[in-house]
Amino acid sequence: MRASQHQLNRPGGRRRVFAAGLLAVALAFTSACTDDKGGKPSSWQGGGESPAPKAAATISEPATDAKDVPASTGITFSSKDAVQTAVELKDAAGKTVEGAVAADGKTWLPAGALDYGTTYTATVTATGDDDRPATATSTFTTMAKPGNQVRVSSFLGDNQVVGVGMPLIVKFSRGIPEDYRDDVQRRMTVTSTPAQEGIWHWVSPTEVRYRPKTFWKADTKVSYRVQAGGLPLGSGWYGRADLSVDVKIGAAVVMTVDNKTKRMTVTRNGAVIKTIPVSLGKKSTPSSSGTMVVIEKLRKTVFDTMEELGPEEGYRTKIDFAQRLTWGGEFIHAAPWSEGQQGSVNVSHGCVNVSMANGDWLFKNTQVGDPITVKGTERKLQNGNGWTDWNMSWDEYVKGSALPYEPPADPDATPTPAAETPTPTPTA
Prior knowledge:
With about 425 residues, this protein is mainly β. It has helices at about 5-10, 15-25, 180-185, 305-315, 355-365, 395-400; strands spanning about 55-60, 75-80, 85-90, 100, 105-110, 120-125, 135-140, 150, 150-155, 160, 170, 190-195, 200-205, 205-210, 220-225, 240, 245-250, 255-260, 265-270, 270-275, 290-295, 295-305, 315-325, 330-335, 350-355, 370-375, 380. Strand 18 and strand 19 (about 265-270) form a beta hairpin. Residues about 1-45 and about 410-428 have low confidence and may be disordered. The strands form seven sheets. Strands 20-19-18-26-21-27 form a six-stranded mixed sheet, with no helix packed on it. A four-stranded antiparallel sheet has the order 1-2-5-4, with no helix packed on it. The chain has a four-stranded antiparallel sheet with strand order 9-11-14-13, with no helix packed on it.
C-alpha cells in the first residue's frame, strides 16, 4: 500500500517512504490507500482516485445468474449520458456471439438462437463525451432443449421470383395464443431493396402474412426472417428454429377484368401489353368482384365437381393453362368451348374464361403473386377466399397486426422491420 501523507511527514521515515513508493508503483492500478485514520485516498504524486465516468449502463434482462433462460433471449439494456453504447455476448469459452440491436434500440438480439444448456456473459459498455467507459455485465444460463417445439415454415423458398401482389406467408405448426403474437411479431423482420412500407397481418392463429402498403415495386429484392428458435409460444411450447427467406419481385404484371366490357386488360410496369376477351360466371354462378392474386399455375389439370354437385349438375373436364385465384375454385383458364361467347356473354361457373391462344399467352407472361382485379359482377369477393390481402384497405390490414402500427419517418429510406388449407372444388 502506498504511504500516507501522515507517514511521509514522520521523522526518520525515509526508508519506509522509499519502500512504500516502490510498492505503490506495483499496485497503482489495483488499490487505493487511506491514511491511518481511515480518511480519503491519498493524492500523493498525483495518484488520486479517477473521476467516475459520466455515462452509465444497465442490463435488465436476463438477470445475472439467471437459469433456464429461453434460447431466444435478447439482451435488454439501457444507458445514460452515453454518446456510444456497445453490446457484447460471449459463451463460456469466450467465443463472441453475433447479433445486432433491434429496431426499438433497447434490445440486442443474437443472430440466431443460443445453444441450449449453455452459460453466456453479456457486457454492455456505455461511453460518454468524457471518453470514459462504464460497463454492466450479466452471466446467465440457457434452458435445456424443450420437448414441445413449434415448426415455422414459409410458403416461398429462397430465390423464388414472384409477382408484385405476393404476400409473404409464414405458418406455424401450432396455433399461437393472442398474448404471444406480439412477441413473435417483434422477431419478424422484412428488409426490401428498395425499401417499402409494410406490415404483418395475422390471418389465423397459425398463419401471418406481410404486404407492403401498395404493390411491391418491380424488381424488388425482399428478405424476411423469423427469429423463433427457442422463443416461448405459450403452454410450454417453444419455437423449433429460426427461418429466413430471400425472394425477388418480378415485373409489375397486373390484370384488370371489367364485366361491363367483358375484357381483361394486362399491363406490365404500367404499360398496356394486351387486351383479352373473357367470359365470366353466369348469373347462377357469378365470378367474384375484388382483388385476387394468382395462387398456383397448372399447365394441365382436371376440374371434377361430380362428388360436390352430383351426376346431374357435376362435370369432369380437362383444363389447360389454369391459374388459381380463390380457394373456392375460381381460375383464369383456357376454355375453347366458350370462345364464341368470350367478349360478349358470361357462361362460366365463376372462372375467367379465355381462348386457348390467350390462355397460353397469359400462362407464359404471368407468375404466382400477380394481382388480378375483377369489377362489376353480382358477387363480392369474400376475404379469406384466397390470398385476399389486397382486397382489404390499408387501414383494415393494419388492424391485423399484433403490434401498434408506426409509419416510418421516411418509407423510401427505412427498411421495415399453420393449419393446412383444404383443396376446394374448382369451377369452370
